[in-house]
Write a structure and sequence with these properties.
Blueprint (H helix, E strand, L loop, with lengths): L3 E4 L12 E3 L6 E7 L22 E7 L2 E10 H6 L3 H24 L16 E2 L11 H13 L7 E5 L1 H8 L13 E2 L7 E3 L2 E5 L7 E3 L2 E12 L3 E5 L3 E6 L8 E14 L5 E7 L3
Length: 282
């Protein structure tokens, strides 16, 4: 196994939804975003040459800064010596997967403290409530998520849903509308193995929280998110670096392997996302 290695890989499952990726950032950089309230006026027939009022565009600015993520594991030197490259490949893949699942989780629900980026659910996104003690999502709940995004004039771009594996299983067995014969979560016609809800893509990942609380539903509430994923920025300040230490576990006959990456997440427009945070699966 090489003593150090660079692995070029993007975030985990989220890139499938269409966020913008900013790669190879070498220092703190600022990415500006803009918004404007555009006013339109119609000139009357009595004064067709009259001027319309000017609208100024307001600009906001947010920073993308490196947040360091580290993952480490160990395995026996005997295993390494008795296999060809299989053990090395397994360890590398496991570390890589752990790193990028953690980055996906931070993009969804990062707290913004303890060096975590600020995720989608920690910004001022629209919310749809199921019930005082949670609720198995209904078709009305799902459509309301789309309505929240549309109300913010953000229902453009890469629109899709993301939720937990548990929600996917439940909604695959729940009819969209009585007598429709359509499951709420069903195969998408545009690709093998892909899914959809209403007319948008639907994805499931364990990076989405499934342990929230609503009323008496303690620690069992799942999250469903709908949004324009173009308005999520995934920034990598470096590719993932893997360092192999043959000495830290030498007395145990082991090898320690550690992976590092610096990354950040930025929600450009909170209006582009809506979430149901009290979805139940039973």
């Amino acid at each position: 196994m090489n003593t150090n290695e660079l692995i070029t890989r993007n975030f985990g499952d989220l890139p499938n939804l269409g966020p913008r990726t900013v790669a190879d950032m070498n220092s703190d950089e600022r990415r500006s975003y803009s918004y404007a309230r555009l006013l339109r006026y119609l000139a009357t027939s009595e004064n067709p040459g009259s001027d319309v009022s000017q609208t100024d565009m307001a600009f906001g600015q947010r920073s993308l800064v490196p947040h360091s993520l580290t993952c480490t594991t160990g395995f026996s030197l005997t295993l390494l010596l008795q296999t060809d490259s299989t053990a090395e490949a397994i360890v590398r893949d496991d570390l890589s997967r752990a790193i990028f699942v953690a980055l996906d989780a931070a993009a969804i629900n990062g707290s913004g403290v303890s060096n975590e980026p600020v995720g989608i659910l920690q910004t001022a996104v629209g919310y749809v409530a199921g019930g005082s003690n949670g609720l198995i999502p209904t078709f009305a709940n799902i459509v309301s998520l789309e309505d929240k995004v549309a109300t913010g004039n953000a229902d453009i771009g890469k629109l899709s849903y993301i939720s937990t594996v548990g929600v996917r299983i439940v909604l695959r067995q729940k009819e969209e509308l009585t007598g429709s014969g359509l499951a709420m979560w069903r195969p998408a016609p545009w690709g093998q193995g892909l899914s959809m809800m209403t007319s948008y893509g639907a994805f499931a990942t364990n990076a989405v929280p499934s342990n929230l609380t609503k009323g008496s539903a303690i620690g069992i509430c799942h999250v469903v998110v709908f949004g324009n994923w173009n308005d999520l920025l995934l920034a990598q300040f470096s590719v993932m670096s893997v360092v192999v230490d043959r000495f830290a576990l030498k007395k145990k006959g082991g090898v320690e392997v550690t992976a590092y990456i610096d990354a950040d997440v930025l929600v450009r427009r909170p209006e582009s996302f809506a979430a149901m945070k009290d979805a139940l699966i039973s």
